[in-house]
Amino acid sequence: MSGEANPFESLQEQVDDAAAYLDADAGVIERLKNPERVLETNLTFERDDGSLETVRAYRSQFNGDRGPYKGGIRYHPGVTRDEVKALSGWMVYKCAVVDVPYGGGKGGIVIDPTDYSESELERLTRSFAKELRPMIGEDIDIPAPDVNTGQREMNWIKDTYETLENTTAPGVITGKALDSGGSEGRVEATGRSTALAARETFDWLDDSIEGKTVAVQGYGNAGSVAAALIEDLGGRVVAVSDSSGGVHDPDGIDARDAKAHKQTTGTVSGYGSTEPLTNEELLTLDVDLLVPAALENAIDADLAPDVRADVIVEAANGPLTPDADAVLTDRGVRVVPDIFANAGGVTVSYFEWVQNRQRFHWTETRVNEELERVITEAFDGIVDAHESYDTPNLRTAAYVVAIERVVDAYEQAGNWP
Ligand code: GLU
Fold first, then answer.
1. Are 218 and 241 in contact (CB under 8 A)?
2. Which of 5, 192, 196, 281 could pair covalently with 277 via S-S, beta carbons 3.0-4.6 A apart?
3. pLDDT > 90: what percent of the chain?
4. Same CATH topology for 34-173 and 189-341?
5. What does pTM read for this prediction?
6. Which of 106, 212, 259, 262 is catalytic?
């Protein structure tokens, strides 16, 4: 993270920017800028040597006006209360912009998971699941994977919940492994929506993603899948990076091969015949498309003037500070916002939950077709709002669409004294 912006303040600014285009009650907008509740808990678990360790964890339930709270759980040393609050708010607007019937939530544990063994992580995860149990449920709050968590952690949480509740409730969590009730296509879904968002954006600009040069910052699940699928659509990935460094090859990097290299060595660094490059060099590379797929605040107002990409598609949550956004908007750089571009993850989580509730299994083809429909329809809705409200950029348009939906749900429900 290069910038100092507080993500929670960024979220509030984004809501205010969009609310200015809407005739909504100021009191309702205030409600939409703050979480309903935040759990802060200290989890004590046993290390392999028998000693005890206590770590901090959070779960923010931001808004439930459109359905159960929904959103991932991340394991990262940089997790803070405000970060989790922001991420939970972004989930509200993400679910609304793609019109899946959920509110927003997010959780995190303040650890570097690479410091712990698998059995330590299991004990810690089950301890968090025990704390979460009274506040989650298939119709209440449905966690999912996020940074540094995946199927393994989701399976542990599902098992802990089901054991303590003496029931089967696979829909209490999404992003599970297939044999534990997961969905086809869920692992790829965030990267898939990112690639679809890029395709739709170039089409909208009367151009095509074919032959476009691409740089991807962050090569975890979202970034690596987005790179591979953009490559399938005809884009040329020329630079990728992870927290250990970046690599550049103007002739193109084989996205899947680079991922295999990372899986074996732990990093993309040293892949093939590439040249090393720094994080800042990657973000300011002269490419057609930049995909930030790591953490918040990757591009701040200091860096934004040097960004040379024409289009930025946000696979990460909150990778641009609001000040960077303003600079890029002025410079005519098209920014495709996180709450839309990475919404494939939660959309296929929704499909997983629907399948769990119906005890039914969809084919991968069906999942991907439904996802493509959701993403292309959402993009059309954002472009319509951008044109009809004359918003300065696509982010504000996406928030206009999303806030309208949440406000309508709240107002139609009436007020409970
Ligand atoms: N963590 C993902 C996100 O930020 C997925 C959330 C979910 O599937 O609920 O969108």
1. yes
2. 281
3. 98
4. yes
5. 0.97
6. 106
